[in-house]
Write a structure and sequence with these properties.
The protein has one domain: Up-down Bundle (Growth Hormone, Chain: A). With 446 residues, the chain is an all-alpha fold. A two-stranded antiparallel ribbon has the order 1-4. It has a two-stranded antiparallel ribbon with strand order 2-3. It contains 14 helices and four strands. β2 and β3 form a beta hairpin.
Length: 446
């Protein structure tokens, strides 16, 4: 620098290590709304609403999720490429948040199956698209030193939101036929929790706008796969994630139907059934998987989590209605076994997937490719959801919504987890480095 000239003051930027309190207030609360929406609408009450209020079979719910996930899979590349092109994430986040709120609030008024399913599919698309842009903000909100803590805390906050909303909103549903009462309050809660991430969280600085056509956006995805040697481990991760997320996404949508139609739980019992699993998920995200990722790395943590999922599926196959287990003075019937073994294992497995997979993806993703790579990650997850939900929906359609059909569906999902674990085992023990995050001058704050 020439003598006598003062260095220009840098623009206000995010601190190298933003406090977790800042991250919580400006970013993580979004996941509380997202997880609560998924628990209340997808996992718990829309299936009941469709069956008991609209009068459609449970498999129709599965097909609705499949269609929604397919549309999300198709549009994910253009969404990710558009975000990278403009660099900003928040404008897209706002658009899809408001879309979800409108569709979910209107859902309780639906009285025909085309209206109900159409509103659900639109809300499902908006929820998943919004979550894509939310997760793509990770390089702007964290750094290599705190990314594990940020992700673990965010996942834990998400499950806390699920628990609070499930306990609170379940009081509005004393019977199956009143399931539609939860949709309006859930939409308002989601909007309130999404607001900080939409307007207050650090975001990428806007770059010069360039015209980006649809062909070019999908061409970027094609180019990523064509350069498989350069991104070989990233692609292996995507394929493995695609396979085991078949099971994860399907459990989220299937567990409500399975709990009611196989195990005999009523709508007013679902809070007590899912509550313990959410508590396990919330605590394990904070005190189990966060420290575990830091101690042994994300790859090994993913593999441990997949072993948990295999144990869960084995338990589901073993525990059947009418089963009684005597352990000393304890007399456990099938419902108690399901409530205190299968449900907590599901919570543990869900927390592990989201906590460890995101860190592993971050370790495999250059910062300037974050929008595209997180878009591909979303594409993998959404396509997996298509295949997973189509798998159990087809099995229930062919074999009927009886115990045999549900057991075959669970066995099919178990196979996906096994193959996914084999592929994750191929990956190196990668951990996030400086190149996976934005430099300070490329972050916009408010």
């Amino acid at each position: 620098m020439p003598p006598g000239l003062k260095a220009a003051r840098p623009a206000k930027t995010l601190q190298t290590q933003p406090s977790l309190w800042t991250v919580l207030c400006k970013y993580s609360l979004f996941e509380a709304g997202d997880s609560a929406w998924s628990m209340i609408v997808v996992s718990t009450y829309f299936g009941v609403f469709l069956q008991k209020v609209i009068g459609r079979p449970g498999a129709d719910f599965g097909w609705a999720v499949t269609v929604g996930a397919l549309i999300v899979a198709v549009i994910s590349p253009i969404l990710g490429a558009s975000a990278d092109n403009s660099r900003r994430r928040q404008p897209y986040l706002r658009f899809f948040v408001f879309g979800l709120v409108i569709c979910t609030a209107s859902l309780g008024l639906a009285r025909s199956w085309p209206t109900a399913i159409s509103l659900f599919i639109l809300a499902y698309i908006c929820a998943n698209a919004a979550f894509t842009f939310f997760t793509a903000m990770i390089p702007a909100i964290s750094n290599k030193k705190n990314v594990t803590a940020v992700i673990s805390m965010t996942v834990g906050v998400g499950y806390a939101g699920s628990l609070v909303c499930l306990v609170g909103l379940s009081r509005l549903v004393p019977t199956d036929t009143t399931a539609g009462r939860v949709f309006l309050p859930m939409s308002l809660i989601y909007l309130a929790l999404a607001y900080p991430a939409m307007y207050l969280a650090p975001d990428f600085k806007a770059g010069p706008r360039r015209r980006l056509g649809i062909y070019a956006a999908y061409g970027r995805i094609r180019d990523t796969f064509l350069h498989a040697r350069r991104y070989r481990y990233f692609l292996i991760f995507l394929i493995g994630d695609f396979l085991y997320e078949n099971a994860v996404a399907s459990v989220v949508t299937l567990m409500g139907l399975y709990s009611r139609n196989v195990m005999g739980f009523k709508a007013n019992e679902l809070a007590s059934l899912f509550g313990p699993s959410i508590i396990v998920a919330m605590l394990s995200a904070w005190i189990v998987f966060g420290p575990l990722v830091k101690a042994i790395g994300p790859k090994k943590t993913v593999l441990i989590d997949l072993m948990i999922w295999l144990s869960l599926f084995l338990m589901v196959l073993v525990v059947s209605p009418g089963m009684v287990l005597d352990i000393g003075p304890f007399h456990l019937d099938a419902r108690l076994l399901f409530k205190f073994t299968v449900a907590p294992l599901a919570g543990l497995g869900l927390a592990g997937v989201w906590s460890s997979s995101r860190v592993l993806l971050t370790a495999l993703t250059p910062a300037d490719k974050s929008g595209e790579f997180w878009g591909l990650y979303s594409l993998s997850g959404r396509t997996a959801s298509v295949l997973g939900d189509a798998t159990w929906s087809l099995i229930l359609t062919v074999f009927g919504e009886q115990i045999l059909g549900y057991k075959i569906a669970v066995a099919a999902l178990m196979v996906y987890v096994i193959i996914g674990a084999v592929l994750i085992g191929i990956l190196p023990d990668a951990r996030p480095l400086s190149g996976n995050f934005l430099k300070e001058e490329r972050i916009q704050t408010v």
